[in-house]
Amino acid sequence: MAADLRESSPRIGEACLAAIWQEGKTAVWAGNVPTPALAVYAMARNAPAIMITGSHIPETYNGIKFYRPDGEFLKEDEAPVRLLAEALLGGEFGARPVGLTSPLADVAEEYVNRSINSFGSEALTGMRIGIDLHSAVGRDLLVRIFEGLGAEVHPFRRMDRFVAVDTEALDPADLERSREFIAENGLDAVVSTDGDGDRPLVIDDQGKQVNGDILGILTARYLGAKTVVTPLSTTSALEESSWFENIRRTRIGSPYVVAEMASAEAHPVVGFEANGGFLLGDDVKLNGSVLQRLPTRDSVLPAVAVLAQAKEQGMRLSQMVATLPSRFMKADRVKEVPADRAIPFLRAIETSQSFRSSFSPLIAAPESISTVDGVRMAFANGDTVHFRQSGNAPEMRIYVETDSEDKTERILSGLIAKLAETI
Fold first, then answer.
1. Interior CA angle at 363 toward 357 and 367, to 5°?
2. What is the H or E stretch that residue 179 is in?
3. Quick one: DSSP state of residue 373?
4. Rounded CA gap, 316 and 353, in Å?
5. Scanning 54, 102, 246, 354, which has its CA 20 to 30 A from the CA of 61?
6. Bridging pattern class, strands 289-291 and 278-280
7. In the chain, count of helices (H) and strands (E)?
8. C-alpha pair distances (Å), 411 with each of 54, 193, 362
9. Which residues are in the Alpha-D-phosphohexomutase alpha/beta/alpha domain (predicted)?
10. How far apart are the C-alpha atoms of 198 and 195, rounded to whole Å?
11. Closest to 229 in 3D by CA, of 193, 195, 198, 256
């Protein structure tokens, strides 16, 4: 078991430990470590795991993420657990919360060594990297990893109170802060993660965020992936790059990606999401070492891989990103949108041309509409607009992709403003 740095996480952790002990099981407290660090440690020992985290959502929320001994909980695992929980909630729970013990240091150490041993101690030599510490649970480990890879590390913004960072909807103030820090210190990049360390944040040498799906494409190429699995919400630059033998699209959510990866025939297989979380389905060789599979979202692998790749190619990170096909995907969200308002809105967007026209003429006449996950509209000019209710917070997200960064920004900001006043 481990937890992020939210104020409520220790209380939930104590209750979970008590429940585990009451059932006659042994619980090992790993302390405050990133979700992928806990996952890779547990999987290597064929042990289930529990992470107390609300991930990227606001501090007022929290959650519990479960891992089976062989990896992530899948969708078919959720119903039996939900039924058991509902049955238990109707009875008496006699166990008292127990105090958290001293954390098992091996979990953090193995996660740090995983990257350094695989990429090598000179992988980032000569690079100047800023680390936005904020309240990320793996902030100190990030510093150790990048220093261990040879980078000159410049940490900043350590926070005592938890502040959520959403890598798909980055606060403009956070981006501007990183941009200024890069300029002031002559950095090659700024690296950070969300609260529990499974979604990367990378700002390039020009002060621009490298979107998570772009990180995923570049990392997949670096690792020599034959099959790439990714949700509908990631950029079509993946297909247009022609770098991969097999590309499979899924619904949004890592359990769908993991399940599809398991059926891949061409290996190595990898997966990634729009948030940047990268899933490694097979062991891969790097610099004579073996990087072991980790089929759950990881933030460190894509951040390190793109920077190491840029260094090997003698390019700035911004230059390497520019080698991809010109497709620009961006997402944003409107908060406090409960399901009882989201469902009728999505139905109207799907079925009513008059509603779409009144909402925005830009989405009045899509060439096709997919309802596999939310409402995704494709247009004759190649643009896409995707409305989707979040699966873990009361908010609605909009994903927009066009052939121009300015156009994507303009359409997205307009749709977000209209959604906020409509819903």
1. 115
2. helix 172-185
3. S
4. 45
5. 102
6. unpaired
7. 14, 20
8. 30, 27, 8
9. 2-78, 109-207, 211-327
10. 8
11. 256
The separation between the first and the last C-alpha atoms of the chain, rounded to the nearest angstrom, is: 39
Pairing of the two strands 278-280 and 269-272: antiparallel
User: Which is the catalytic residue, given 55, 178, 254, 299?
Assistant: 55
pLDDT in tens, 262-306: 999 999 999 999 999 999 999 999 988 999 999 999 999 999 999
CA 298 → CA 34, 48, 71, distances in Å? Answer: 9, 18, 13
Q: Compute how many other C-beta atoms are within 10 angstroms of the C-beta atom of residue 234.
A: 24
Res. 94: pLDDT tops 80: no
Q: How large is the greatest C-alpha to C-alpha distance in the chain, in angstroms? A: 63
Three-state DSSP string of 187-229: CCEEEEECCCCCCEEEECCCCCECCHHHHHHHHHHHCCCCEEE
Alpha helices (runs of H) in 330-422, residue ranges in sequence order: 339-351, 353-359, 405-422
Name all domains of the chain by residue range, CATH numbers in brackets.
Answer: 2-104 (3.40.120.10), 328-422 (3.30.310.50)
Q: Is 55 a catalytic residue?
A: yes
Global pTM reads: 0.90
The answer to whether 231 and 273 have CB atoms below 8 angstroms apart is yes
Cα 93–99–101 angle (5° rounding)? 130
How do beta strands 284-286 and 246-250 pair? unpaired
d(CA 44, CA 25): 19
